[in-house]
Amino acid sequence: MPLPVVTIVGRPNVGKSSLFNAIARRRTSIVEPSPGVTRDRVSIICQLDDAYFELIDTGGHGVEDRDNLTEQIERQIQYAIDQAFLILFVVDGRTGLTPLDRRTAELLRRYSDRVRLLANKVDEPHMDGSLGEFVKLGFDEAFPVSAMVGLGIRQLRELIAERVGPPLDGPPPDPVIKFAIVGKRNSGKSTFVNTLAGEERVIVSEIPGTTRDSIDVRFEKDGRTLVVIDTAGVRKKRKIADDIEFYAHARVARSIRRADIALLLIDATVPVSQVDKRLARLISEEFKPCVLVVNKWDLAKGRAPSEDYGEYLLKMLPEMNYAPVAFTTATTGRNIEATLDLATELVKQARTRVGTGQLNQVLRDALSGHTPPPKRGRRSPKFLYATQVTTQPPTIVIFVNDPELISQNQERYLLNRLRERLPFEEVPIRLVFRQRRDRSRE
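^ that's the sequence the OP posted. Answer follows.
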């Protein structure tokens, strides 16, 4: 059974995103004084005592978007309203009633039994007396809150919990897998996400930089709960225009860290860029499994065979030499499901644990063959034994007499041999060398 939805609605700059973060008790939505920062539906699963619900932040109703996305923003607001069990209609208690508040009230009139009017930015208790004019909107008396200083937030959370109530069938299931969809601007990430979700969950536009927040999209597949994280498109650091882009870029990195796997979307119609390389390095540094998703393949497949393009990617993104490549067309859905299945298989690999006996046999076999020479002027290291200490990523500790004796060539050689013989062929392995005294000499 789906969770009840609590939707936050209001004109621009009434503090909807700040209120969203205050209710959720975490910074999820970008908060910035410029109007129109939030465009998509940003959502999060919240728990208040025994109550669970999905909280949704929406774009400013009536905003004149500078990128001409007003129609798409309004459509996302309407989707969120139609889904809502409870609608939090937010007005600005400092500014007072505005014509745009009245327009928003007209939009919500037919949902009046689900609407709770909130006056935000009531930073001091004595301001309550100036809220009477909001009665003209035709709803109950405005509930005073301040997302900035926390006034009334505890009471608001209690109100929501009382309205929502405990779920009939227990708490919602944790997602089985979290997929982070990353890539440079206009690589097709939002179209990819909408195709997976089977609905217009995020705004799709040819205008670069449409997505600003990192947006979690939950959906069911084969009886499993999955989460796809749509992220803001990345561009060169020197071209980051404002604080909005800065925070969006920071959240791309955070999304990669909290995901189980990254899908790096590459635009097949243009050469691999510095941004693609930077994202590949970030994914590699986080030791995340990755699928290199070559999107818009329908527009480029006549230029080169897929095998040649795969070799090209390996040359341009050497840190991703373990990552499989998928060729997709998100606009038509071509190969999208297969890519999701491939990503799921990689997560299984990353969650695999091998026995110490098997691991040490592979290590002995690797060392009995040709191994790269030690560092110049140093004695050869002595490898004692290995053990896998954790998964996601598979982390293997090899005990040696002196970790300083291990050269990069030796480390690379061992990684390749381990990947060949263990069930980690297409995922990153974290290899740790730890010193242990050779007891054979005691």
